Amino acid sequence: QVHLVESGGGLVQAGGSLRLSCAASGSTSGITYSSWYRQAPGRGRELVATITASGHTNYADSVKGRFTISRDNAKNTAYLQMNSLKPQDTAVYYCNAIQFVQLAERQYWGQGTQVTVSS
């Protein structure tokens, strides 16, 4: 089992920055994909960014050039640096991890952290 805990959310003005952290604990070996999702009120959960264990990244078009995902494998922590924030970035941000154990895929979610961007 893997336990994910997000931190770093808050209230920021448009144009500001925040850095989210996602700390993984438990049996963390085999975590291949670390991702950030977000869910705004009345909307479905959307993928924001993904990073693989080897460092390959992928971003939603809406955040390209503004957000950067990274991970520190030694600390079992993933990060999402969010710059040039816009009011439409307001959402609950969730950390996600996909782990492969003996070819079986396991998926884990954090509890979410609120990000609010004021105009």
Unreliable segments (pLDDT under 50, ≥5 consecutive)?
none
Number of helices: 0
Shape descriptor reads elongated
Q: How many β-strands, per DSSP?
A: 11
Helix-strand string: EEEEEEEEEEE
| Sheet having the most strands | 7 strands, mixed
Distance from first to last alpha carbon:
40 Å
Work out the strand percent: over 45%
Query: Mind telling me the C-alpha Rg?
Result: 14 Å
Helix content: under 10%
| Class by SSE composition | mainly beta
**Overall average residue pLDDT:** 96
What does this structure look like?
0% of the residues lie in helices and 61% in strands. The termini are far apart. The chain has 119 residues and is an all-beta fold. 30% of the residues are buried.
Task: Tell me the layout of helices and strands.
Layout: E1 2-7, E2 10-13, E3 18-26, E4 31-39, E5 46-52, E6 57-59, E7 67-72, E8 77-82, E9 91-101, E10 104-109, E11 113-118
Parallel strand pairs: 2-11
Antiparallel strand pairs: 1-3, 3-8, 4-5, 4-9, 5-6, 7-8, 9-10, 9-11
Q: In a few lines, what is going on in this structure?
A:
This protein has about 120 residues and is an all-beta fold.
Short key terms for the protein model shown above:
single chain; 7-stranded mixed beta sheet; elongated; mainly beta; 4-stranded antiparallel beta sheet
